[in-house]
Specification:
By secondary structure, the protein is α+β, with helices and mostly antiparallel strands. It contains 14 helices and 39 strands. Among the domains are: 530-768, no CATH class; 784-883, 2-Layer Sandwich (60s Ribosomal Protein L30, Chain: A).
Amino acid sequence: MHLSLQIRAQKQAEESIYGWAETANVKVGDVRYHLLRNGLILKGIEIERGSDALVIDHMLVRANPKLLTSNAPRIGTVAISGLQAELHYQGLLDTWQNDEVLQRIWKATGALHVDDGIVALYLENEEAPPLIIDAIQLSLHALREDRVVSLTSQFHGAPVQAHWLRSEKPASVSRGELTWRDVDVSLLSPTLPIGPTAGQLAGTLQWERGESGSGGDRLNGSMRLKHAFEDNRIQLSGLKWKGERSDDRWNVAINSSAWPLDGWGAYLPKIEGRALLSGRLDGDISVQTAGDGLLLKGDKGRVRNIAFALPSTLSSGLQRDHWRIESLDYRAIALDTGNHTLDASTLKLSNSSIAFQPLGAQNGNDQQRPVWSVRADTVGISTLNVVMMLPEGDIQLSGIGGNCSLTARGLSDIKLHSSDSEGRETDPKWSVTGELLRQEGSVQNGELEIRAEQVPLTQLRPLLPFGSPASSPLSLEGTTSLAVQAKLKHGKWVMLGKATSESVLLSYAGNRWMAERVNSDFGPVGMGLDRQRVSRLHAEQWHYIASLIPLPFQRGGEKADMVQANKRSWWAEGMLAGRWEIDKLTMSGGTVSVGQPESEWVTDAELRLSQLTARKLSTLSMHGNMGEGQLKLDGSWSPLASQEKFLGNIELVNATPLFLSEWMRASGMPKPVRGRISASLQVSQGDQPDQYAGKVAINIERALVEHAVASNDPMIGRIGYNTIDLLKRLESENGKISLQFPVEGSWSERPLGLHTLGLSMQKALRESATRPFEVASVSRPVSSKTATRIRLRERGALSLNERTRLLNVAKKMRSDSSLVVDLIPKWAGDRLDRDTVQRIKHTRRLIERYLNYRGVSKQRIFPMAATAQDHAGEIASIWVVLSSAK
């Protein structure tokens, strides 16, 4: 009998459960009913509501199947094991609560126990991985209209506990508490993007929820975050909140202590396309729901360790474009995420750094949406570092401070300057004033006045036409002062201004150019211009030191020499690459040396050049002293053109060859001892636009070199004779050498330069050196007489006695036009040092000047080089030797 009752009860249970399941849209795999125990076992239960899913492996229900499936169910206890749930944020509030059938079962249950449950919880971002909560142990007990629920679970091994009370009484309050410990935040951050991204999290959350007509909902709690860094530093953060909802609006008071703001960038305004990447908040703020957004307010507080980043740099890991603020203090701040407004009474930024590419695409100047309105009455700035990243390198402004105002239009009343409290007196000083205007969420227009003092030129190198440090072996030294008017229009910068540089040094491939001062007026220069214009460039007291390049024993191949001759100068390449042009270039008080600074070839040089551009010939003039003679250059020059050209005249009058001593010695030739050189080059336009025609004339008087024949004398390989033999072959009976030859060719195929001039001169020398010659030793002229001796001096003028003696020499020379005078230095001491050489030059200059003053032309005065045979055991002096011989 019992068996038949059990069979019938089982059949009735199946019919009831399966029928109910079909009506309730629930799948039940297996039904077992124990009549005597009044126990119903359900297996393989599957429930889907929208995107939510619930699977129960085993459920034991203490209830009669008919009472379970009726419209007024009565259930004793329910025990569930093997629960698996997939829940989605969008359906948490409505999907299950609005299911009347399931709600009747839930409310009718007197007790519920869940063992070994697991829930995958998808939050608002459906693409993010779910939060997995497992090891769930849940118990529910019904006490009349109240239900008490307790929960223990784990989140990746971290304990999570909760308990709450829900009442069905009218005007009742439901309340509960949730606690968690040692939660790995990195497992939460992919799903919860508005919190910290690393560390161990612990906290508690209490809530009260009033039923209809019972009052507002309340929420309070706290969280603690512990983050251990690789260097063993520990960062502790805390967050407390207390909130209440009334009239469907939440009001939450939050106290933050170094709480990370990672992931808040989506809710805050961007700065030039850069979103908040990280930061830590200290202070009290109130949060109020307002429509679709939040309204945050705070009387005062501080945000530390702020970083803003371009979205395009996050995936690449590049941090150079990040903007950083060590601390930002605020007062009376209001942030409305719905209306996209940020207002503050005062903002104070300390130790900030920003970097941007004014010529690049990653400036955040794309139109950003939504467009925020940001206002602040006063923005104080302390120690701001600005880095402008240019293709040729970075420019940095360090230690800037001051203030400005933030308005809906942008940054106004900007007043920034270098801090006086930090650094040394020689550190760069910057000053920036003006305004920057926003358009479509980014700065697009504005005007700035920029002044600077004592800025190292190396910091401004990316703005100069010298190429990048990696591509150009250029060394740059000196400091500069600037006064610049910078205008920003439609996102493009254009500047005009003045610059004064001091103690300038340019060094390139062994060549050096120095100047005590360089003044320039420039502009417009900047972005989107066809050319970068310098209206005036003036260098004072300049000195160019060229590398000493010996003349090879034999000239190179024609093709290799032509390639070198056609090569454009490095500075011309830099100007062309940057599209630079100079209207007027002047240089005064110049010196040109070769090899060593004291080896001066040209002194007192003055240079003028106008319209230095690739579009046409520039007008060039230069004059100075070369080898104690006069050097003049006048013509037209085109160093920036595709084919470099020069049309004009170069003339050297009555120079001594002594300045060539070091170069001739390095080339294997004997040093010059005496002589006067005059030379000229005339270049004019040829018959065709690409052709030139010129003439070279060289005159040398009384040439004398040291008697030293070297096997590596380059004249042997080039002409067929050593230097001494060549001079003797070229000399006329009166001791003069005259050489004239034409130069002509095409600028593109045979450019006129030192190479072409050298080839033409070698040809003329070979043709002129035709008469036989027998090597003879060099000796002083036979018919010579030492007229007087003038002691060497370091400074000062000639004495009265010395002037009297020189006056007698001048009288003799005026009375006899065949007489010439040799100035032979007699030096004392162990060796011929630099100081002695300078004393010889100074004394010799005094003698020449006096004789010129007394009517003796420079052409009749022959300074001689100091040689070993001129070493004297007596007082060092200049011997003034009269001679009528060649």
